Amino acid sequence: MATQAVKASGRTVACADPKKLRQAIAVGVQVRRLEQRGEEVKDELDRANAKYAQVEQIKRFELLDHDLTEEEGELTPTLKLKRNVVYDRYADVFDKLYG
């Protein structure tokens, strides 16, 4: 089986399995979109933070690559956040933000 290579985002991805290559490209596209969305959110936060005192401003944030859902057990049927579930499931994200 021949190895295929594709250059994406300044990186060359080589893979013998075309299906895995397509998956790797899709993940790269998803990461780029999340990074772009993060920049958009940061710009909007900067505008919003300008209205507040330093102690009231949002300093750090992290975007998840998916929405929190009731099906995954992260929200109640009335769409309230299940804090203990979210904290346990995303402890590494919270550690990064507050650690």
Fill in the keyword field for this structure:
99 residues, mainly alpha, 2 domains, two-stranded antiparallel ribbon, 3 helices, 47% helix, disordered N terminus
Summarize the structure in short.
By secondary structure, the protein is mostly helical. It contains three helices and two strands, in the order E-E-H-H-H.
In whole angstroms, the N-to-C terminal distance is: 47 Å
Gyration radius, rounded: 19 Å
Q: What is the overall silhouette?
A: extended
Q: How do the strands of the widest beta sheet line up side by side?
A: 1-2
Write the layout of secondary structure elements.
Elements: E1 4-8, E2 11-15, H1 18-49, H2 83-89, H3 91-98
Antiparallel strand pairs: 1-2
Describe this structure in words.
By secondary structure, the protein is mainly alpha-helical. It folds into two domains: 1-59, no CATH class; 66-99, no CATH class. Helix content is 47%, strand content 10%. It has helices at residues 18-49, 83-89, 91-98; strands spanning 4-8, 11-15. The chain has a two-stranded antiparallel sheet with strand order 1-2. The radius of gyration is 19 Å and the shape is extended. The chain starts with a strand and ends with a helix.
